[in-house]
Design brief:
heterodimer, A: 104 residues, mainly alpha, disordered N terminus, B: alpha+beta, Alpha-Beta Plaits, 51% strand, globular
């Protein structure tokens, strides 16, 4: 399972690159989920109506969280992305930010 | 025939009777086009994630039904004409 390797493609942000140049002793390991939650739990269905689940997969600005943060495998990440987009269209999830946090 | 899921958001400021009428209207529309409704689930009033047409609340209705793919476009078009429907979405679920 490629997504479980610590040197996953998505790992390397610019910050990590800089750190690597400084030598591996400086490299800090960020713990991340090792398993795709949808692969390990078959009962967990990705559904655009499940706001509670999907809200955990977007950050506070409303963006879809990357695989490297959530541990979701590529196959399920695609489903998650579609579900989030569907949920946004029917106003179950915000397109950007939490509207109610700023107004009211 | 394929299984579809229809979610639509009605204006929350309508009264009970108008809401019922709107939901029934959609149901009969589906039935008249050889559709078979599996279930209708009214979620009721719900806060929208963002305002639509300056409204902060919506009345959500979920309909699961079997439908001919060719007829879906016409259904969407009719929904678009209904001014009480803020948003709708038809998604194939099989």
């Amino acid at each position: 399972m490629t997504e479980n390797r610590p040197t996953d493609r998505g790992d390397r942000s610019n910050r990590d690159d800089r750190r690597e140049r400084g030598g591996s002793r400086n490299r800090r390991f960020v713990s991340r989920p090792k398993f795709c939650q949808f692969c390990s739990d078959k009962k967990l269905v990705i559904d655009y109506k499940n706001v509670e689940l999907l809200s955990r997969l977007v950050n506070e600005t409303g963006k879809i969280r990357p695989r490297r943060q959530t541990g979701t495998c590529a196959k399920h990440q695609r489903e998650v992305a579609t579900a989030i987009k569907n949920a946004r269209h029917i106003a179950l999830l915000p397109f950007e930010g939490d509207y109610w946090a700023d107004n009211n | 025939m394929h299984k579809y899921e229809l979610i639509f958001i009605l204006q929350a400021d309508l009264d009970e009777a108008a809401l019922d009428a709107a939901v029934e209207n959609i149901e009969t529309l589906i039935k008249n086009n050889q559709g078979e409704i599996a279930k209708t689930d009214r979620w009721g009033k719900r806060k929208l994630a963002y305002p639509i047409r300056k409204m902060n609340e919506g009345y959500y209705v979920l309909v699961e039904f079997d439908y001919e793919p060719e007829a879906v476009a016409a259904l969407k078009r009719t929904m678009g004409f209904n001014e009480h429907i803020l948003r709708y979405s038809v998604i194939r679920i099989d």
